[in-house]
Amino acid sequence: MGRVLGVLGGMGPAATVAFLARVQALTPAQSDQDHIRIIADINPHVPDRNRAPDAAEATLGMMASRLRDAGAQILAMPCNTAHAQSAALRKVGLPFIDMIAETTAVATAGGAKKIGVLATPGGEALYTRALATKGGKIVRLTGASREAFMACVYAVKRGDLGERPRAEMRRLAATLVAAGAEVVIAGCTEVPLLLSADEVSVPLVDSAEVLAGVCVEQCR
Question: Looking at 79, 152, 215, 219, which residue is catalytic?
């Protein structure tokens, strides 16, 4: 019997549901009993990770404690930006799967050095540091393109998965490639809800997919 996975979710809700579906799809199973047990706290009321990081950290710490007390044995959080507050999760004494580190390892595994990142400002900062440890350099959006990216993220959060935000996300990914990106990281869990790998001319590394795969490996 494998370890019980505790998921800190709700950031945002649609991205969390998509992540849980990935975990299920990536699990090699012949019956219900072959799947891993998951305890999820889908909490959309976590304070905004960009605007209220201290309040977010306090809430995430409480969520992690409750998941531990409910029986979780290992923790995962399908929100890149919130990894800036991951210290609160680590304090509860359970192993924590680091989405940023795992995604960075996949993105640089083939030798790419210039990595485009589609992420919030907080996520960009996390990936900048992580890529530096692997000898990589971030290629980021700037100016109006960064604002356009955040508009796409909030479109998903309000339920808009239509062609307009999809087309904009394709344009933003192409902008990173044009700036020299050899690989693009979908470094916000809303990104893969708007963008697929076949719409990017270089490899697209989906951070939620990476995290889901590691969860399966470590919990089975």
Answer: 79
Q: Is 79 a catalytic residue?
A: yes
Rounded Cα distance between 201 and 197, Å, is: 8
Select the CATH number that applies to the domain covering 100-207 from these four: 3.90.320.10, 3.40.630.30, 3.40.50.1860, 1.10.1040.50. Answer: 3.40.50.1860
Q: Is the pLDDT of residue 63 over 90?
A: yes
Q: Quick one: angle between helices 143-157 and 163-178, nearest 10?
A: 150
The helix/strand/coil state of 126 is helix
The structure's pTM equals 0.96
- Asked whether the CA dihedral 69, 70, 74, 77 is positive or negative, the reply is negative
- Given a cut of 90, is residue 36 above it in pLDDT? yes
pLDDT tens digits, 4-20: 999 999 999 999 999 99
| Strand residues in 51-145 grouped as ranges (E) | 74-76, 114-118, 137-139
